[in-house]
Write a structure and sequence with these properties.
This is Fungal lipase-type domain-containing protein. This protein is of the alpha/beta class. Helices cover about 45% and strands about 10% of the residues. It has one domain: Rossmann fold, CATH 3.40.50. A five-stranded parallel beta sheet has the order 1-2-3-4-5.
């Protein structure tokens, strides 16, 4: 049923080469300094000033970054919903690049965002227009981080996040970035309520078949085959 004042904005993830370019442009500086911090002796002592260094580096690439600043359109759309559609309780969500954009716009507009395998924004917070604070990220954003997912480890995590397991083979860590696998892990770990699990959970990702309910005479394989 329709909920007065509620709005849900879903942002698609990376599906094309141009999206990969956008990821690299928006989060490349943060990722580079994360790597440098890891290899430098006592690298963590530089964390408090890294966001300022990243701001300076990003200024040199302003024109290129402007071309991939999709978050600005998302922020404008969120503000439009609030101003003209009377949506006061807006939630944003997305996977991968879409999740990263959702986290940025949520911090800018002070609405709630849930990202799945999303790049973060703690170190790069000052590079966005308008910039936002760590408190904005801590109060309004939540990221689901699969183990061994490289994208969800870009930039530093804010306070609210949840790590989940990844069932992919150890040498296939990019498989840990797949939204379907992560959704199956969430459903099998937390439960799915009255909703059945996805067929791809058992057919593609090899999760165990759910037990049939009372009165159901079909096996799970038969259900997936017929529906």
């Amino acid at each position: 049923p329709e909920v007065p004042g509620f709005g849900l904005v879903a942002v698609r993830g990376t599906t094309a080469k141009a999206d990969i370019f956008a990821d690299a442009q928006l989060w490349g500086a943060a990722f580079l300094f994360q790597v440098l911090r890891f290899f430098l002796p006592a690298g963590d002592v530089f964390t408090p000033i890294l966001h300022q260094v990243i701001m300076f580096v990003t200024l040199l690439e302003t024109k290129n970054i402007e071309k991939v600043s999709y978050y600005k359109e998302l922020t404008k759309f969120t503000e439009y919903l609030e101003e003209f559609k009377n949506a006061t309780d807006i939630h944003l969500t997305g996977h991968s690049l879409g999740g990263g954009l959702a986290l940025i716009s949520a911090a800018q507009t002070k609405h709630i965002a849930v990202g799945l395998s999303a790049p973060n924004a703690k170190l790069s917070r000052g590079t966005f227009d308008p910039p936002f604070t760590i408190d904005d990220l801590n109060n309004f954003t939540f990221n689901i981080v699969p183990n061994r997912d490289p994208v969800a480890r870009m930039d530093d995590l804010a306070d609210l996040f949840q790590r989940i397991e990844c069932t992919a083979d150890a040498n296939k860590f990019f498989s840990c970035h797949l939204a379907g696998r992560s959704m199956c892990e969430i459903m099998y770990t937390c439960g799915s309520g009255i909703r059945p699990a996805f067929c791809l959970c058992t057919e593609t990702y090899k999760y165990p078949e759910p037990l049939p309910r009372d009165g159901v005479n079909m096996t799970w394989s038969e259900v997936c085959k017929n529906f």
